[in-house]
Amino acid sequence: NCLFRALNKMNFITRLSALCLRKSKMQQRHQSSRRPAVPLGSRILTDPSKVFEHNMWDHMQWSQEEEENAKERAAENSLVKVQWEDQEILPEKKREELKTEQRSSGHTKRNCTNSFSHKNEMFEEGEKYWKKNCGGGSTSVQGYADNKNQIKSLTDNAQGKNCGEELSRLESFPGSDATYRILEVGCGAGNSVFPILKVLCNTPGTFLYCCDFASGAVELVKSHSSYNSAWCSAFVHDVCDDALPYPFPDEILDVVLLVFVLSTIHPDRMQGVVNRLAKLLKPGGMLLFRDYGRYDTAQLRFKKGHCLSENFYVRGDGTRVYFFTKDEVSNMFNLAGLTEVQNLVDKRLQVNRKKKVKMQRVWIQSKFQKPLLLSLNKPEETTGRHPYR
After folding, report:
1. Where is this region: Disordered (predicted)?
2. Could you report the per-residue pLDDT of 275-306, keeping only the tens digit for each?
């Protein structure tokens, strides 16, 4: 029974990843509204004379000449750097205003006992679920143990009202009664949120969190007719600020979606962001990553004077973008304690058939998993206990 449920969960992750990694950036392929004749990922260009018959060709192999040309163009547009004083990603005043606003909002939620419709105690429910489906005995997922220890610590050191508020926050939060939880970081206006919700509304026990730095984008998501707080919680969050709490405890997420988000963050802050997101995953949880790859057409199109630092640029609208290599991505997530499941360079040829223009697109697509924590005892030495803690 446990194996059957585990296989079902992995199938769900696979289907969800295929759905979610086609985010807004991927929707800008200028494809016709007609369904493609072949599935995405299997359109291979075998006859160069037919290159303008479709809008996108998959699994493109670059020639050595194309590789060298791309490197030269990137080196050329990086010669002139933006002055250091002009590289402020967000004015400090604005960042402080955002932090104050979010902390105030979080305080209000903690003190409003009827804020959320789901009030079951997550830790007890989680342990019941684990025992029922995996024969967990007295052992449970480490995340539940850690959170129960947090509660015990708070109880042992009770100091009146503040302790009570923190205890309430840990036990009651949006999606607290769910058994499968997903977080999309950088949800924007919801291009991925609503396709995911379409799946979740037919899958009992699931819940979606989605956040964005822009409060306007979050409001668009929450005002959408398909938004339902029974399955989803949208909130404003600055992932670069480690001091800002998430509206749920650590180690409860099964999936984190990080799609075309990390590239917008300053390289010096990327590792901290990844480390924090890794803490949100429960053991066995999966982080799905997709972002710009090195020498993508978007990088080669930049003019001189738009380069902030190596492979990091500023667009005309002030937004930033970094272009990754596969090794950089692997190192970053490994340092966060995650194990590589998939990490590949997705090279495609995008075609503007009207203008007869060809564009080499490069993306990095990866899956990283939080390791399951093994029990100190070997499985055969345990009695009625699951081998994982």
Report:
1. 91-116
2. 999 999 999 999 999 999 999 999 999 999 99
Helices (H), the chain: 2-20, 64-77, 92-110, 122-134, 142-156, 161-171, 193-200, 215-223, 267-280, 297-300, 326-335
The token pair at 249 is 């405890």
Count, residues in the chain: 389
Query: What is the per-residue pLDDT across 316-348, written as a single tens digit (0 to 9) for each?
Result: 888 999 999 999 999 999 999 999 999 999 999
In DSSP notation, 230-287 reads TTEEEEE--TT-TTSPPSS-SS-EEEEEEES-GGGS-HHHHHHHHHHHHHHEEEEEEE
Domain boundaries defined on the chain: 41-89+248-373
Give the separation between CA 167 and CA 38, rounded to whole angstroms: 53
* CATH dotted code for 41-89+248-373: 3.40.50.150
Give the separation between CA 301 and CA 306, rounded to whole angstroms: 10
Please write the tens of the pLDDT for every residue from 188-245: 999 999 999 998 888 899 999 999 999 999 999 999 999 999 999 999 999 999 889 9
Q: Are 283 and 370 in contact (CB under 8 A)?
A: yes
Does the reported pTM lie above 0.90?
Answer: no
* Cα of 136 vs its chain's centroid, Å: 29
Residue 288 to residue 73: CA distance in whole angstroms: 30
**Whole-angstrom Cα distance, residue 106 to residue 195?**
28
